[in-house]
């Protein structure tokens, strides 16, 4: 019996050594040491042994079982390690490889200027009002007192959908929309996109941006308009900036003015930026025409108001010294990353 046990041990030990998978080792373990295993069967046969032989054989059997158990667990450990190595080498990570470039976006210069304008005017008590880019001819022209024969209404100057709808040519229709739903006191600015059928060049784009302003209340005078724009000019272009009103004509204001600021580059002496003038035109403004107030259901005998409209692309170009409006809309990251 002793020989049988030792032979069985040798045989099992060599097959354990030859195993290439943990499953194989496990099946050998079950076949040898399991309930119905070969070693177990030998041990079960011990009851037939004599009293002298039994402790001897029992000792050998226990040693054989222990040795086999050790071999099995060592082999399992070895195979587990090998598996891990295979897995690791399949998943190698080259830490010297260049990483993916993560580009952080930034706000477009026009958006930055709009944000700054909103900050300045909301600080003076203005609220931000929005209007649609697709407007009625009525809001864009008629309600704003723009006569039927005004050149800006021409088919070749404006994008019409049909005779009643168009792409707004200015943010001024937001004045109309606001006055139709709000009672004075009204103090709003309205940033937005406008459209005119212009051929693109360095200073023209068929799509551009404006900031509209409107104040309607009792006893509003041109002094408030001047004070507001003076405060704005200093905040936006820098301390010491002066403003100048030049008489002009807009259908929706009376009197009307074009407003210039002292050149913020030369301070008014004259340079290439202001073309030697010392002044730069930045917006149109005026006192809201009584017809406009009336068209929007506000009594011009009781209320008066002022309005202004600024070209935001132009303001952005001046502020950042951009010499071609088209650069703003090409979305070339090399350009945009500079702001
Ligand atoms: N809407 C005018 C334009 O596009 C700009 C403008 C001028 C707006 C005078 C105003 C204003 O509100 O009072 O040329």
UniProtKB/TrEMBL annotation:
<dbReference type="GO" id="GO:0000287">
    <property type="term" value="F:magnesium ion binding"/>
</dbReference>
<dbReference type="GO" id="GO:0006432">
    <property type="term" value="P:phenylalanyl-tRNA aminoacylation"/>
</dbReference>
<feature type="domain" description="Aminoacyl-transfer RNA synthetases class-II family profile">
    <location>
        <begin position="110"/>
        <end position="330"/>
    </location>
</feature>
<keyword id="KW-0648">Protein biosynthesis</keyword>
<dbReference type="GO" id="GO:0000049">
    <property type="term" value="F:tRNA binding"/>
</dbReference>
<protein>
    <recommendedName>
        <fullName>Phenylalanine--tRNA ligase alpha subunit</fullName>
        <ecNumber>6.1.1.20</ecNumber>
    </recommendedName>
</protein>
<keyword id="KW-0547">Nucleotide-binding</keyword>
<dbReference type="GO" id="GO:0004826">
    <property type="term" value="F:phenylalanine-tRNA ligase activity"/>
</dbReference>
<keyword id="KW-0479">Metal-binding</keyword>
<feature type="binding site">
    <location>
        <position position="254"/>
    </location>
    <ligand>
        <name>Mg(2+)</name>
    </ligand>
</feature>
<keyword id="KW-0963">Cytoplasm</keyword>
<comment type="similarity">
    <text>Belongs to the class-II aminoacyl-tRNA synthetase family. Phe-tRNA synthetase alpha subunit type 1 subfamily.</text>
</comment>
<dbReference type="InterPro" id="IPR045864">
    <property type="entry name" value="aa-tRNA-synth_II/BPL/LPL"/>
</dbReference>
<keyword id="KW-0436">Ligase</keyword>
<comment type="subunit">
    <text>Tetramer of two alpha and two beta subunits.</text>
</comment>
<dbReference type="InterPro" id="IPR002319">
    <property type="entry name" value="Phenylalanyl-tRNA_Synthase"/>
</dbReference>
<dbReference type="GO" id="GO:0140096">
    <property type="term" value="F:catalytic activity, acting on a protein"/>
</dbReference>
<dbReference type="InterPro" id="IPR004188">
    <property type="entry name" value="Phe-tRNA_ligase_II_N"/>
</dbReference>
<dbReference type="GO" id="GO:0016740">
    <property type="term" value="F:transferase activity"/>
</dbReference>
<dbReference type="InterPro" id="IPR010978">
    <property type="entry name" value="tRNA-bd_arm"/>
</dbReference>
<keyword id="KW-0067">ATP-binding</keyword>
<dbReference type="InterPro" id="IPR006195">
    <property type="entry name" value="aa-tRNA-synth_II"/>
</dbReference>
<keyword id="KW-0030">Aminoacyl-tRNA synthetase</keyword>
<dbReference type="Pfam" id="PF02912">
    <property type="entry name" value="Phe_tRNA-synt_N"/>
</dbReference>
<dbReference type="Pfam" id="PF01409">
    <property type="entry name" value="tRNA-synt_2d"/>
</dbReference>
<dbReference type="GO" id="GO:0005524">
    <property type="term" value="F:ATP binding"/>
</dbReference>
<keyword id="KW-0460">Magnesium</keyword>
<dbReference type="GO" id="GO:0005737">
    <property type="term" value="C:cytoplasm"/>
</dbReference>
<dbReference type="InterPro" id="IPR022911">
    <property type="entry name" value="Phe_tRNA_ligase_alpha1_bac"/>
</dbReference>
<dbReference type="InterPro" id="IPR004529">
    <property type="entry name" value="Phe-tRNA-synth_IIc_asu"/>
</dbReference>
